[in-house]
Structures
1.
Amino acid sequence: MRSPQVVVVMGVTGTGKTTIGVLLTARLRVPYAEGDDFHPQANIARMSAGVALTDEDRRPWLDAIGAWARKRTGLGGVISGSALRRAYRDRVRATAPGIVFVHLTGDRALIEERLARRQGHFMPTALLASQLASLQPLEPDEAGVTVDVSGDPEEITVRVVDALRELERSSAEQ
């Protein structure tokens, strides 16, 4: 890729945002930031209790992600974050206009299976339904790619890198 991009790996819980984000940083040779680490403690407490976050709850988190992305402009970086709704992505983009979103998506049964195996994470499986209900996939005018999460993490990461290269190629042609 011609210049380091700042990439937000997005999707509902259980799609592998952290796993793919970490593998992607190794391929792109840029730093990684775990989006969950940007949540205020009150948000983590709410989600741990099985309570879905409101838009108001998400604002400081989205602003923190945008601030991190802005600082990485021109340097590159990967950060994970659900970014489920267009308004959330627009809020991050307002702070860091050049970012690119990678939407990890997959079959609900596969995601539920992965969540059932996950241990030590504050996000309960019960919130998957509310996240799926809130999800607004990337729209054609948004800088980003959608990648299916079937397969192993290495395969998914290769698909992400290929999709980002194709996006960059098509953007350069326009």
2.
Amino acid sequence: MFQSTFYMDKIEQLEALQDIRKMMNRSVRFLSLSGLSGLFTGCYALIAGFIVYRYNNGILLIDNYTNEDIHFFITLGTITLILAISTSFLFTKKKARKEGTKLWDESAKNAFINLCIPLLVGGILCLTYISQGLNGLLAPTTLIFYGLALVNASKFTFPMVRQLGIMEIGLGLVNTLFIGFGLIFWLIGFGLLHIIYGTYMYFKYDRT
């Protein structure tokens, strides 16, 4: 009888510790991020890449952009970004409501700020490249700074975001050795990697 009571007390203590750990983890990490957000973002990127591919008449190697091309790419990229952000917001809001948590708390704010700083720096650098005619550096630069943004924000969300960021940075660095093949690296980085990441996150966290 004594051993049974002692065993039950131990189980209750372990459960209490696990609950405390979850509460502390949620207080510093934004865990309402939905895996479906990454999945749909990857699909949007692949669709945008296919549109660019058709726009270039089936040519993957692009070593010379005109101003008209840049305007088209910026417009398409903006539309894709709006779709990705809107979809991510809807899925994340749905997940937060399901878990009974706040969508915008201190952890979400920290993740957002740390994500935006590298993105803003990378965006300004890309505008500088465009003004100087260094359009071939746009693809690797966006991949590198997006990866840096993910690594920077990963301290406040799921650890796998850091791994995704490192892969994006690696792709961007390799892309600097193959200027002109930015479309291929974009499709891999923003499309394929996001689909793999989103699918993994969905089955590991969302479904459970």
